[in-house]
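# nightly structure sweep
# worker-07 picked up a monomer target from the shared queue
# config: single-sequence mode, recycle default, output format = structure tokens
# input follows
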Amino acid sequence: MRYVVVSAIFSCLSQMAHAGGLQFQCGPMEGHSYYSDEGLFEGDSGWTDNRINTETVISFDLDESTIDYRINSLGRWVTPEMEGGATSLINLDDDASFQFIAIWPNAATEVVTIAEVDAENYTAIMMLSQAKNGPLGANTSAFKGECKVVSF
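# output follows
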């Protein structure tokens, strides 16, 4: 039975992705961040509510298992590769969710999870775990946002 459900999910996703791929357009994300007691944050460490207001676009080629991860940063689209970093698929689950790692040199390491993919309503969620360490101090964050799923 599990095989039938998984096959049905991938069939729906494949129909959505005429060229063998999907695009996830994700909006603002809300979450929490922990700032270490060092650098700019010295004396002001701890947990705080946080938000990412930028748009994120994730294109996933189902045939090649490749990820194109783009963030609209101050009106300019950037990718880890443009900054000298890398993006790599970690896993693709049998419920059509997937995870990848994005390394932004001198900025952050991120683990991104796309889950709750709904082929009928063309929606999903994006979960982002982010770690930063630099001259301003170290911090780690976890965010969640809503996504629209479109074919490409």
